[in-house]
Specification:
CATH topology of the largest domain: Alpha-D-Glucose-1,6-Bisphosphate, Chain A, domain 3
Strand order of the largest sheet: 1-5-4-2-3-6
Number of domains: 4
Radius of gyration: 24 Å
Structural class: alpha/beta
Number of strands: 21
Number of helices: 17
Distance between the termini: 36 Å
Largest sheet: 6 strands, mixed
């Protein structure tokens, strides 16, 4: 064996001796044996698993399951919990509520977190079963906890899991809390095994009361007098949203949702989809087919932890349906919140389509743009609605300071039913908004890269050699978002301002090994035929996306 592999094997053997988990011990023992036999795949996997440590930041931690410090496993989870416990104890302690989804090992990780926190002298409470992330975000504020922890990898591939951390204000952590917690985790990581079998580790398993409170709070969002006619096809995408969304819709007075049976029950292997994300190609095929075969009015989809929401509406297509973009849903929900009489600030991530700003200005209310992520959006003062184009919507920031796919779906169904009662349609409202503010056409392209170094290389090359034109449109200005000029915190990204009002933003994904491009074109509507403006915008997007794909290789 090489010297490097020898050192990795020594690390792996120490990990193997301390790992409390039979499953990962067996995986690691087999990996070490195969690496010693010279199997190249095993050597690469072993070296990667011990090359570094999963980084804890503003998104918590997220990674592939398996043994080693660069994987999600019980050792890493316990170390993370110990670091969080030290951070909280230094600031007065308090209680922590813990939730988990239905991914592989999620329940085990949640219980390990609760045990470590309890042994550290904190009061630990665990939600009663696998539940959506927004229920955890709600429970944190409803119970008045010092922190909340959610075990989930959201819509990542089935191999992944992760941990999100919220503090007492109800929002996900941001700097400097992320670096301070990370420093405490590094201290805790010196000890591979952290749970003391001789010390009690008692925690409280919560009952249904917290779920009932979430349901009642959600129901209060819709007006008692609003229409309830929407018949919805719904897919839970093999996640944990199915039962809760169906209960809330029924309690609200909507017809029973027609669930996609193959995707209704939680299944951590996500057998019907390549990636469990409603945005991914093919993920919505079963829902679209079910809607095509039944007399329904709306399609609604959640991602596996139900913090995101996708919507489909009737359309002149082969199946008779089309999925709305995340931007379209965001503009419609923002408009509807204002129609319902809410006043305050509308907010969105900088990569989202900017029609929301025009809607806010027209209504005379506040508007703010933030960095990507609800850890930023939820902190906007006076927020009444916030969204990001990746299907994330916050419609009740008073109670859930995070994206919530359940309440977003409920509010959208109310909007669509109210339009229907007036003889109008969702598409008709989109056309109305376009006539008032212009056609805002948006699109996203992304490239998944297995090697993180390629992501850094792509961003570096774009900084060194920015294009002079994109899709035939001159680049008027380049903003390096690592050195922002508009008051936002620095982030890894580039924004290209194009002639004619277009825009391209390039940034690495914060949760997946991807580089993403966010495209926008704005076209004025001249005369009654909105179709011409939409076609001009669509053609421009095609031209811009062709060039952007070349940037990403």
């Amino acid at each position: 064996m090489s010297t490097g592999l020898d050192q990795t094997t020594v690390q792996a053997q120490a990990w193997l001796a301390a790992d409390p988990d039979l499953q990962t011990r067996e995986q690691l023992a087999a990996l070490i044996a195969a690496a010693k036999q010279g199997e190249s795949d095993a050597i690469l996997e072993l070296e990667d698993a011990f090359a570094t440590r999963l980084s804890f930041g503003t998104a918590g931690i997220r990674g592939a399951l398996g043994p080693g410090p660069n994987r999600m496993n019980r050792v890493v989870v316990q170390q993370t919990a110990a670091g969080l416990a030290s951070y909280l104890q230094a600031r007065g302690g308090g209680s922590v509520v813990i939730g988990h989804d239905a991914r592989h090992r999620s329940a085990d990780f949640a219980h390990d977190i609760a045990a470590v926190l309890a042994q550290s002298g904190l009061s630990a409470m665990v939600l009663p079963r696998a539940l959506p992330t927004p229920v955890l975000a709600f429970a944190l504020r409803w119970l008045g906890c010092a922190a909340g922890v959610m075990v989930t990898a959201s819509h990542n591939p089935k191999r992944d899991n992760g941990i999100k951390v919220y503090l007492a204000d109800g929002s996900q952590i941001v700097a400097p809390a992320d670096t301070e917690i990370s420093a405490e985790i590094d201290k805790a990581a010196v000890a591979l095994h952290l749970l003391d079998e001789h010390v009690d580790a008692e925690w409280l398993t919560l009952d249904e009361q917290v779920i009932d409170a979430y349901i009642e709070t959600a129901l209060a969002l819709v007006a008692q007098s609003s229409a309830r006619s929407m018949r919805c096809v719904y897919t839970a995408m093999h996640g944990v949203g199915g039962d809760l969304l169906a209960r809330i819709f029924q309690r609200a007075g909507f017809p029973a949702v027609l669930s996609v049976p193959e995707q209704l029950l939680p299944d951590p292997d996500f057998p019907t989809v390549a990636f469990p994300n409603p945005e991914e190609p093919g993920a919505m095929d079963l829902a679209l087919a079910l809607a095509h075969a039944n007399p329904v009015d709306l399609i609604i989809a959640s991602d596996p932890d139900a913090d995101r929401c996708a919507v489909g509406i009737p359309a002149d297509t082969e199946l008779g349906w089309r999925m709305l973009s995340g931007d379209e849903v965001g503009w419609l929900l923002g408009w509807w919140v204002l129609q319902r009489g809410k006043r305050g600030t509308l907010a969105q991530s900088l990569v989202s389509g900017s029609m929301l700003e025009a809607i806010a200005q027209s209504a005379g209310v506040g508007y703010e743009q933030t960095l990507t992520g609800f850890k930023w959006i939820s902190r906007v003062p006076g927020l009444v609605f916030g969204y990001e184009e990746a299907l994330g919507y916050c419609v009740d920031p008073e109670h859930v300071r995070d994206k919530d796919g359940i309440t977003a779906a409920l509010l959208f169904a109310e909007l669509a039913a109210s339009l229907q009662a007036q003889g109008q349609t969702v598409q008709g409202l989109l056309d109305q908004l376009a006539r008032e503010h212009g056609v805002y056409a948006t699109a996203q392209i992304s490239v998944r890269l297995a090697n993180p170094a390629l992501i850094s290389k792509a961003m570096h090359e774009l900084r060194l050699h920015p294009p002079a034109s994109v899709g035939g449109f001159a680049v008027l200005h380049v903003d390096d978002l690592e050195q922002p000029s508009d008051g936002l915190p620095p982030t890894d990204g580039l924004r290209f301002i194009l002639e004619g009002g277009g825009r391209v933003i390039v940034r690495p994904s914060g949760t997946e090994p991807k580089v993403k491009c966010y495209l926008q074109v704005v076209e004025a509507v001249d005369g009654p035929d909105i179709g011409l403006a939409r076609q001009r915008a669509a053609d421009a997007l095609v031209s811009i996306s062709t060039d952007a794909r070349e940037w990403l290789g």
